[in-house]
Amino acid sequence: MNANVFVKRYWDEHPLAVIMGLAIVFRLLASVFAKGWGMFDDHFIVIESAGSWVAGHDYNDWLPGSPGNHGPTGHNFFYPGLNFIFFLFLKWCGITDPQTKMFFVRLVHAAISLVTVYLGYRIAEKLQDKKAARLAGILLAIFWFMPWMSVRNLVEMVCIPCIMAGYWIVIKKGSDPRVFLTWFLSGLFFGLAVNIRPQTVFFPIGIGLVLLFKLKWKELSGLSLGSILIFALIQGGIDLVIWGKPFVELLEYINVCFTERNDYISLPWYNYFLTIFAMLIPPVSFFIFFGYIRTWRKLLLFFIPILLYFAFHSYFPNKQERFILPMIPVFIVIGTMGWNDFLKKSKFWQHHGRLLRSCWVFFWIINTILLVTFTFNYSKKARVEAMHYLSRYPHIRAMAVVDEENSPELMPKFYLDQWPVSYNEFVGDLSADSILATAYRYRDTNPPGFILFSGDKNVQPLVVKARKYFPYLVHETTIEPGFIDRFVHWLNPINKNRRLFIYRNNALFPEQITPTDE
Question: How far apart are CA 134 and CA 169, in angstroms?
Answer without folding.
Answer: 20
